[in-house]
Automatic annotation (TrEMBL):
Reactions this protein catalyses: a hydroperoxide + 2 glutathione = an alcohol + glutathione disulfide + H2O
SUPFAM superfamilies (UniProt xref): Thioredoxin-like
Root EC class: oxidoreductase
Protein name: Glutathione-dependent peroxiredoxin
Function: Thiol-specific peroxidase that catalyzes the reduction of hydrogen peroxide and organic hydroperoxides to water and alcohols, respectively. Plays a role in cell protection against oxidative stress by detoxifying peroxides.
Organism: Spongiibacter nanhainus
Length: 159
């Protein structure tokens, strides 16, 4: 079952790129005691994610943070190397790029999808959520193929 408004973010580890390579980052360190906008994409460097979804958050990062958001994070079922390279290619300096290489976080929040028909295996659905002190206060899951309800502009309306 998918995570719902009011649910806590599961305690687990994701990956970020550190100075010496991939490093663990605990979800508690990301979410506890903070207001976070987390958005998920099916895959780094894929068309909708690269042309529309991530750029919207890059362009609106200052406006989002001005609404009291401590962290804007992007998660995908990709490794930390790919997420780091994608973030750099998109000038996403204000976005915490999170690798969920095995899809453990995505499965834990119940928002995985089968993209094997596209040769991509299990991936994340496209969504965005607002998390306050570790609890989901807003969740917007996209219908297949869309980049609308989870777009930065729509999340700004919810802040």
């Amino acid at each position: 079952m998918a995570i719902q408004v009011g649910d806590a973010i599961p305690e687990m580890k994701l990956k970020v790129m550190g100075e010496k390579g991939p490093e663990d980052i605990a979800t508690g360190d990301i979410f506890n005691g903070k207001k976070v906008v987390l958005f998920a994409v099916p895959g780094a460097f894929t068309p909708g994610c690269t042309v529309t979804h991530l750029p919207g958050y890059v362009v609106n990062a200052d406006t989002i943070k001005a609404k009291g958001v401590d962290t804007i994070a992007c998660v995908s079922v990709n490794d930390a190397f790919v997420m780091d390279a994608w973030g750099k290619s998109q000038n996403a300096d204000e976005i915490l790029m999170l690798g969920d290489g095995n899809g453990d976080f995505t499965k834990a929040v119940g928002l995985e999808m089968d993209a094997s028909g596209f040769g991509m295996g299990t991936r994340s659905q496209r969504y965005a959520m607002i998390v306050e002190n570790g609890k989901v206060t807003h969740l917007a899951v996209e219908p297949a193929g869309g980049v609308d309800v989870s777009a930065a502009e729509k999340i700004l309306e919810q802040l």
